[in-house]
C-alpha cells in the first residue's frame, strides 16, 4: 500500500463505465502529493444490433446464423433468486462431438431468461462488449455470469456447454467483475448498493452454495473511505482463499476524490484476510490477476502516471515495479482494460507468464520534467492504431524482454485482445480487427473484418497462419481439464463503424463456444 497520491481528478459522467482523459498542467501540482491517483469521467450507453441463434442445445460451427433473437430495448425481468427457462435443453448426441486441433470453434446455444444488454459504451462511446465470465468447477461443470436488469444471472451448464438448471439471480448486483465456479455453487465479484458521499456502489464478493447465498462481503465502504463505481476487476481462487483486484474511488481520507486500485484477499467463509493493498496503481487502465498456491497472487496493471503496463505483484503502487511495456496510458489510448479489451495472464508449467494487450507502442518515453516527484512519465505513441502485442515474464516478480508485436498494419485497429493456454506448450492469441480505422482522442472506428486466432509458442513465434473466424471471444475464457477452451458471447454481428448512442441492445441467448487443442 502507498499513502501518496496525486491532487488532480476529473468528475465522472456515469459510474457504470470508467473512462479517463489526460490533464494538462497537473503534474506540477502532483509534486505536493505523490503516489497513486485515478481520475475519471464515464459513459454507459448502447446501440442496436442483429442477434442470431440456433436451436437450444445444438452444436454448430460458432458463426452467427440467420434467426434473430436480439431485441433493441431492455425491459426488466421479474426479480427472483432463481429463474428457470421454459425448457431446459438436454445434451444431444451432436454435443459430444468435438472438433479438435483445427482452430474451428463449435458452439451450443443457451436460451436466456432475461434480456442481456450485450454492448457497453467505453471512452468516447467506443463500442465494447458487456463482460460475461465463464468459469469451470473442479468437477468439470460450468457457470456463466452475465448482467441483466434484475441483477447478475449465473447460469449453470454441463461440461458440453448445455444448460443444466435454473439461473441463480444475484439481486442488486451491478456488474460481472469476476467469477469462481465451485462444485456446489460460485463466488461473484460485483458491485452492490452502498451509503457514501458519492452515492456510488461498493465492491463485494457474494458466495452462493447449493442455490442459497452463504456470504456477502463488502470490500469498500465508509470505514475504508472508498467506493467502486466501476470494477474493471478480476476474481481468482487458489483453493484456500479468493483474491479480488478492482478499481476504487476515494471517498474521504487522503485519497478523497481520486481513483486507484485495490487488492483484497478473502477466506472461503467470506472473512477479510491480510495482504494486498488498499490503494495502488494510478488511473488503472487494466487489471490482471493470477492465483498462486503460496504468497502474493501475481498481478499486472496499466498505470497512467507512470505510463505503461507494470507488474504490481505484492507492491500496490508500482514505484519500483518491473515495467512490462511503456504506453501512453491516457483514456482511450492505453491497452486496458484487461477484462474488457486485453488478454489475461497465463502461467506455464515452468513458471513463466505470458500476457497479451492492445498496444500503440512508444516512439519515445521519458520522465516528465514537470513532475518533481520523479514518478511521472511522458510517452509518445508510435502508432495511431492499436496493434497486438505479447510479453513474457520469467517469474511473477520480473519484467519481460521487449514486447513482441503480432500485427503491424498502420491503418488497422485491433481490439478485444485475449490470450489463453492452448495444449501443453502453445498459446492462443485472439483479437478483432477493424480495417479503414479512423482515430480521434485515442479511440477508433472502422469496419469489422473478423476475429483472428493465432497460435504462438512461449517465445512468441507463430505456429501457423492466422485463422479468421466469425465467432467472437468477448468474455473471460475457462479452461477445462482436457485443455478445451470455452467462453460465452452474444450471437450478434459485430459493428464498430460508429460510436454508441442510446440504450444498449439486448440478446435473449448466449453462444457457449468450445475450442479443443
Plain-language structure description:
The protein has 517 residues and is mainly β. The protein is built from two helices and 37 strands. The strands form ten sheets. It has a five-stranded antiparallel beta sheet with strand order 3-5-37-36-35, with no helix packed on it. The chain has a five-stranded antiparallel beta sheet with strand order 4-11-10-9-8, with no helix packed on it. The radius of gyration is 21 Å and the shape is globular. The two termini are 41 Å apart.
Cα-atom radius of gyration? 21 Å
Number of E-type strands: 37
Q: Alpha-carbon distance between the termini?
A: 41 Å
Number of helices: 2
| Average predicted local confidence, pLDDT | 82
* Poorly predicted sequence stretches spanning 5 or more consecutive residues: 1-60, 62-80, 86-96
- Secondary structure category: mainly beta
Helicity range: under 10%
Q: Sketch the major β-sheet.
A: 5 strands, antiparallel
Overall geometric form: globular
Q: Approximately how much beta-strand content do the residues carry?
A: 35-45%
How do the strands of the widest beta sheet line up side by side?
A: 3-5-37-36-35
Give keywords.
41% strand, mainly beta, 2 helices, single chain, 517 residues
Concise overview:
With 517 residues, the protein is mainly β.
What's the helix and strand layout?
Blueprint: E1 18-19, H1 27-30, E2 41-42, E3 60-61, E4 82-83, E5 106-117, E6 119-121, E7 127-129, E8 133-136, E9 142-148, E10 151-157, E11 167-170, E12 178-182, E13 185-192, E14 202-209, E15 212-218, E16 226-227, E17 234-237, E18 241-250, E19 259-267, E20 272-277, E21 286-290, E22 298-303, E23 308-311, E24 323-326, H2 338-341, E25 345-347, E26 353-359, E27 364-367, E28 377-380, E29 387-393, E30 404-405, E31 413-422, E32 426-440, E33 443-456, E34 467-469, E35 478-479, E36 485-489, E37 506-515
Antiparallel strand pairs: 1-2, 3-5, 4-11, 5-37, 6-7, 8-9, 9-10, 10-11, 12-13, 13-14, 14-15, 16-18, 17-18, 18-19, 19-20, 21-22, 22-23, 23-24, 25-26, 26-29, 27-28, 29-30, 31-32, 32-33, 33-34, 35-36, 36-37
